[in-house]
Amino acid sequence: MINRDIFEDLFVLELANNHWGDVNRGLRIIREFGTVARYNDVRAAIKLQFRDVDTFIHKDFFNRNDIRYIKKTLDTRLSREDMATLVEAIRRANCVRVATPFDEKSVELCVELGIEIIKVASSDVTDWPLLEKIARTRKPVIVSTGGTSLNDIDNMVLFFEHRNIPLAINHCVSLYPSEDADLQLNQIDFLKNRYPGHVIGLSTHEYHDWHSSVLIAYAKGARTFERHVDIKTDDKLFSPYCSTPEQVAEWFQAFNKAREMCGAPGSEKAPSTQKETDYLITLVRGVYAKRDLPAGHILTADDYYLAIPLQKGQLSCRELLNDQVLAAECKQDAPLMVEMVESLYNRDETLRKRLYERGL
What we know:
Low-confidence stretches: none
Order of helices and strands: EHEHHHEHEHEHEHEHEEHHEEHH
Largest sheet: 8 strands, parallel, barrel
CATH topology of the largest domain: TIM Barrel
CATH class of the largest domain: Alpha Beta
Structural class: alpha/beta
Oligomer: single chain
């Protein structure tokens, strides 16, 4: 079986726009979000984006400022040494090191820098040369599915399954930012049913509310979560699909509340708490005699009635059976005690004592 634990309850915080190409800004982001993760007792990863810019962009397009993606990639590029500095800062912050490589050379950089999980962007679900390079690292993979056809997702999942690569599949809507009505959170149910052997997650970009989606997603079974993060400064534009440290703190708190409220995994029966058991006992009816009943009498439905409260050592509606033989007499309207009925509980002191521990 593939080890799923690496993805369970993992929050992936992506440094948006590669921290605008400023390594010091990146270090501050890592420090601030690492602190928020520790204070909220969550397992967090910080994700970088790797591009070998000299080969990722065709040389004839290096000066094309009219193509937004090319301009942003050039404006935010960092050296290998800067990337290594950031990866080491993530390690020191006790966060999981994650990166999205957008080309084959960047996959090699993931290996060189000790990246622990590789993220595949929605745009690269069908980039087979890139996926093959990623698979050869044997590292766990998280993939987002925004705007991807079902056939392409199926093929990608089979690709990693055949290579026995741990895989988490994130439901994602590739709108930046996303309105609440765009989120399609029921797709988490779909992915869980279609790919039961994999962790299902949520990569999300809404900007109105940092509580609702994680509450719903966790309850539906999502177990890894991703957001873009950034800090607000006077010198850089803050993208509306990013989350500040304060907003991510709200996100983490909502997750902890969701986990508290959902309790045990849906695959198993949650144990009853003593507080819950004690409360329910107060609602259980006890057995009372309708009339004087002599010892040796065979109990029938005409001999008793049920009422609250259940008294300590009293026979309750849970244990009541017709045709039970009375071992002792019971007066009208008196509680029918467990020792008054011939049974194992009448003969065994230890068992009888347990019944005397309940009731009023």
